């Protein structure tokens, strides 16, 4: 086949070897494939060979007489692979093709893979890959080309005759895929084999060592021999065995001494805890990039640890709840100025599981910087924000300056300290703090300052001129209405200016008015009694008490209380120090000996037919009183003992009392209803007096009196009919009065 273009000639082959020169057809002369024509020049020693007249000898040698020639073109990439050249202006050296000496009709083509020269790379615009469509270029029918190539008998004969030098089949997509899969499998197999070798080597080298990546309480021991790992742990952790363990429970952070708590470390057990070498390849590979904390194995003395945790909870961790509030401190050098401060709320908390807390400490005391213990908590109702809101908006303004209270002619002043004493705080229910004012501390601070602006009411009373009672008129009282006066205090106290309050007064009627006294029917004596034998300070105290009681009116249904009417018996009321007992014995006390007046009043009430509301006999019998009809006002330790009666008559009664020298008389005035008689029972149960040494001071020798039991019966008769109305019996036990030896 003749070439249509001139192509560069190949270098001449040696004279003693026939060469085959392959010419690439110019592009575009075939349907999409790279066509080639070939000449087989005759060997120098082949007889009778002639060259194909239509083929150019590009080798530059003269054809011999005999030429191995197979007519027809060879198409496709197979021959191009053999030549190692591509179409284009550049050509490369073609592998040598020789004639077998024993078979002259056989052409030997060297292996293309082993002898081919790297082909020249054509320009991009001159090369078109088969099977890839490009715009504007008509693509060849590759299937038709393959069919034509397969139907070329000359090419088939030539390739069959080539033997081992036959060119490889075309590189179709399927063959390329198979070749890629094969290469991938070879690479994968080689990689797996390499990994298996590395895995085995790593496993053998790590025998007897701690698994890689292991840490104990933050100390890296992975990859070490176990003995080395133990030594490393001892070196790193032994100083920490005596360091305090930080414990946090709720809102408390404290410390625990590991030595006194019985905490220790099992070194061998800790190393063993790391485990053996893992067999999983993935685990071993992963250990190069990660660490694994295994913790420590402790040698804990559990009784010591449990006791230490219990003591820690009781002394430090547990505490009651502190509700939010506000406190005050007095500022020194000022007139009652105070400074308000917030009482921060605090939850209640308690360690309830001591055993569980001990286990957690045992597990974490070396590895964790802080051991957290779970506690049972109860939150407060008031928040810190609620406390500060009340402090800033209400309390601090309230105690910033005094509050002036204007009375009738006199002013009272509430100092900041007085205001602080009256403030009360309670949870508001929404986390806030409620501020209240209790009026009683304010009243206590203001009452002495404003007392002279009040006027006490005076009850109507019966006075005795000679032997006849007359009514002394009552007077109204004017008192401070504290509720109305202090009602606007909260609003005034929170002002920055005009911190003033006016006093509001109220009129108070007396308990017994003049009209009521006249209508009570007090016009005759209904009961009277006199006792004697008083001397010295005892007589003085009895006279003072009689003066306080005389003229008292008891309305129908009311109860008269001697202690309630007179109040405490103090020196300011005129009482003096006297012997406790009216006979001059006993310790010295203020108001001593007034039991004689109490007995006299009791007997006057007794014969008036009024109802006994409570009295107490003397501890032993005094012969100056009727048996079973005495009453005392002082106990053996000097404390008061009350005596009372109830006016159960339809009319009122008045008390007239007076002392004269060594005697005291009490009369009950009213409207007489009964005739009263008294009957004394027999004495029994005698008990001789004990003998005692008298006190060092004010000792008076006494023979004493025996103790006994007796009774008294009061019999009431109707005045008009004389019939017995009722009979009242009371049993009395007197103890023995000691014989005193001075």
Automatic annotation (TrEMBL):
Keyword set, alphabetical order? Membrane, Transmembrane, Transmembrane helix
Pfam families associated with the record: PG_binding_4, VanW
Record region (Disordered): 1-98, 126-150, 680-707
Task: Cite the YoaR-like putative peptidoglycan binding domain residue spans from the record.
Answer: 433-487
Q: Does the record bear Ribonucleoprotein in its keywords?
A: no
Transmembrane regions listed in the UniProt entry = 181-201
Q: Which residues form the signal peptide?
A: none
Q: Where is the composition biased (Acidic residues)?
A: 140-150
Protein name as it appears in the record: Vancomycin resistance protein YoaR, contains peptidoglycan-binding and VanW domains
Q: Which organism is it from?
A: Amycolatopsis arida
């Amino acid at each position: 086949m003749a070439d249509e273009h001139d192509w560069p000639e190949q270098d001449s082959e040696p004279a003693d070897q026939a060469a085959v020169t392959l010419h690439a057809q110019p592009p575009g002369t075939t349907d999409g494939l790279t066509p080639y024509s070939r000449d087989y020049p005759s060997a120098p020693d082949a007889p009778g060979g002639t060259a194909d007249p239509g083929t150019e000898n590009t080798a530059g040698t003269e054809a011999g007489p005999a030429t191995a020639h197979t007519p027809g073109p060879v198409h496709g990439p197979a021959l191009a692979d053999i030549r190692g050249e591509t179409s284009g202006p550049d050509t490369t050296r073609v592998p040598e093709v020789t004639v077998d000496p024993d078979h002259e009709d056989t052409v030997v083509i060297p292996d293309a893979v082993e002898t081919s020269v790297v082909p020249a790379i054509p320009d991009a615009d001159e090369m078109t890959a088969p099977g890839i469509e490009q715009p504007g270029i008509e693509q060849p029918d590759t299937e038709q080309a393959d069919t034509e190539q397969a139907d070329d008998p000359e090419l088939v004969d030539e390739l069959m005759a080539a033997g081992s030098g036959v060119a490889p089949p075309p590189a179709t997509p399927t063959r390329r895929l198979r070749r890629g899969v094969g290469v991938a499998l070879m690479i994968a197999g080689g990689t797996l084999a390499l990994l298996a070798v590395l895995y085995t080597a790593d496993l053998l080298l790590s025998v007897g060592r701690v698994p890689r990546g292991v840490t104990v309480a933050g100390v890296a021991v992975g990859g070490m021999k176990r003995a080395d790992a133990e030594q490393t742990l001892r070196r790193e952790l032994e100083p920490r065995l005596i360091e305090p363990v930080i414990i946090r429970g709720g809102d408390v952070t404290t410390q625990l001494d590991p030595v006194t708590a019985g905490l220790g470390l099992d070194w061998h057990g800790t190393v063993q805890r790391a485990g053996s070498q893992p067999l999983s390849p993935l685990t071993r590979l992963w250990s190069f990039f990660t660490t694994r904390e295994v913790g420590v194995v402790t040698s804990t003395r559990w009784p010591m640890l449990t006791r230490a945790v219990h003591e820690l909870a009781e002394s430090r961790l547990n505490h009651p709840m502190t509700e939010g509030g506000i406190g005050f401190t007095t500022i020194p050098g000022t007139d009652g100025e105070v400074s308000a401060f917030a009482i921060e709320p605090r939850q209640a908390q308690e360690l309830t599981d001591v055993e569980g807390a001990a286990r957690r400490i045992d597990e974490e005391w070396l590895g964790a910087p802080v051991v957290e213990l779970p506690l049972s908590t109860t939150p407060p109702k008031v928040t810190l924000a609620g406390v500060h809101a009340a402090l800033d908006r209400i309390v601090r303004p309230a105690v910033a300056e005094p509050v002036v209270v204007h009375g009738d002619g006199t002013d009272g002043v509430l100092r900041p300290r007085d205001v602080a004493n009256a403030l009360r705080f309670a949870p508001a229910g929404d986390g806030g703090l409620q501020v209240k004012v209790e009026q009683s501390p304010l009243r206590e601070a203001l009452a002495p300052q404003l007392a002279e602006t009040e006027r006490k009411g005076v009850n109507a009373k019966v006075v005795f001129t000679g032997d006849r009672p007359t009514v002394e008129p009552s007077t109204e009282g004017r008192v401070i209405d504290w509720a109305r006066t202090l009602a606007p205090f909260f609003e005034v106290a929170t002002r920055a200016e005009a911190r003033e309050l006016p006093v509001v007064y109220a009129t108070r009627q007396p308990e017994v008015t003049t009209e009521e006294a006249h209508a009570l029917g007090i016009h005759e004596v209904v009961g009277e009694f006199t006792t004697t034998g008083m001397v010295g300070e005892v007589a003085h105290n009895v006279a003072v008490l009689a003066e306080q009681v005389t003229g008292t009116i008891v309305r129908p249904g009311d109860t008269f209380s001697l202690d309630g009417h007179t109040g405490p018996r103090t020196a300011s009321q005129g009482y003096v120090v006297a012997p406790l007992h009216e006979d001059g014995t006993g310790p010295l006390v203020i108001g001593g000996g007034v039991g004689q007046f109490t007995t006299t009043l009791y007997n006057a009430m007794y014969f008036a037919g009024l109802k006994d509301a409570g009295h107490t006999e003397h501890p032993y019998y005094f012969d100056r009183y009727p048996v079973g009809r005495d009453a005392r006002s002082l106990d053996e330790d000097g404390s008061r003992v009350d005596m009372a009666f109830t006016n159960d008559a339809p009319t009122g009664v008045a008390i007239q009392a007076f002392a004269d020298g060594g005697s005291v008389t009490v009369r009950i005035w009213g409207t007489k209803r009964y005739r009263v008689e008294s009957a004394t029972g027999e004495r029994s149960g005698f008990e001789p007096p004990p003998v005692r040494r008298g006190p060092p001071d004010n000792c008076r020798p006494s023979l004493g009196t025996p103790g006994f039991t007796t009774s008294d019966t009061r019999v009431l008769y109707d005045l008009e009919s004389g019939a017995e109305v009722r009979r009242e019996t009371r049993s009395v036990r007197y103890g023995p009065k000691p014989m005193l030896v001075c």
